[in-house]
Write a structure and sequence with these properties.
There is one protein chain. By secondary structure, the protein is mostly helical. The protein is 39% helix and 10% strand. It has one domain. It has four helices and four strands; from the N terminus they run H-E-E-H-H-H-E-E. The strands form two sheets. Strands 1-2 form a two-stranded antiparallel ribbon. The chain has a two-stranded antiparallel ribbon with strand order 3-4. Strand 1 and strand 2 form a beta hairpin.
Amino acid sequence: MNRQRRRSEIICRCNEVPREVIEKAIRGGCDTLNKIFDETTAGVGPCGGSCRRKLKPLLDHFLKTGGFPDKIVEDNSVRVDPDRRVLPDEDDGE
């Protein structure tokens, strides 16, 4: 995927937030998913936040390397319930 096409890729379809907006927010200091949600509106749409599966690996890669991957591999451990809350990766006994 060429760079321009990658940057214009829509990550959050509900709120039509492109990857370049998310990358800019992360570079600007958004270092948690909640900060990304607040800054960009990605991850808080009526679908329940299914794009969080792309947001988390994008953020994790940046925090680890200082850059962004060419291709985002979705993190299927990020689950969203009907109440639009991110669920823990594992059953924590609650």
